[in-house]
Amino acid sequence: MRIARFSTDDSVSFGVVTGDADRPESLVVHALAGHPFGELRPTGAQHALSSVRLLAPVLPSKVVAIGKNYAAHAAEMGSALPDAPITFLKPSTSVIGHGDGIAYPQISDEVHHEAELAVVIGRMCRDVPAERAAEVIFGFTCANDVTARDLQRTEGQWGRAKGMDTFCPLGPWVETDITLDQVTEGEGLTVACTVNGEVRQAGGTGQMIRTVTELIVHVTQAMTLLPGDVLLTGTPAGVGPLHVGDRVSVTVGGVGTLTNTVVKRG
Questions:
Q1: Residue 142 in contact with residue 170, Cβ under 8 Å?
Q2: What span, in angstroms and rounded, lies between the C-alpha atoms of 230 and 97?
Q3: Same-domain status, 10 and 90
Q4: Residue 244: helix, strand or coil by DSSP?
Q5: Rounded to 10 degrees, what is the CA torsion of 40, 227, 134, 251?
Q6: Which residue numbers delimit the Fumarylacetoacetase-like C-terminal domain (predicted)?
Q7: pTM for the whole thing?
């Protein structure tokens, strides 16, 4: 099931998206009452997806991200494989949705894309054992862990480099029917990035150094996750520069495609 968050002229709602993703004209969003983290309650209202504005599919209290979770990406960054997951936070103010602009900041000259699978948490949880990790997952979405690479190098801490406004595009919706086995078996789900139609990244979640289950266990040993919180799982090799005017798309197999345009920060 695809759960979207969208706006019309007079309201913001969650909804269930139906139709064939390969035929955009067939996509319809069926509005829900309230939030989707419990029983789904359709209102009966429906809209052609093309007639609404898609928003970030959730409003997380925090985005917990994992660095260097693909060996090839660690290598391209000139790093050894980390002994433990590298964990950092992106603020809620960095989150934008499908179609929103990524604002290129004046304080950086080297902004990069990082295509990722994002895990959306569905229930409050802490100290989650591995055998119960699947129970706390609401679904999966696409993410772009946009990074000011020059600030990341010079500042050491990654808070500003990865936490700027608009530096966490999420979307286009949350897919709830993907299993952890699908994420880990074989090559897993494809994770790809294109910039102006050129393929920059092409990997699979089966290449992760640490699985989604391991990451949930690791993160919840330290902090409580709330419904709607997001866990970014790392990026495959091929990260590279973005420039004002670029159109960048992140595609995760079985989920969808998240597209944003880079704009000059005002």
A1: yes
A2: 14
A3: no
A4: coil
A5: 80
A6: 62-263
A7: 0.96
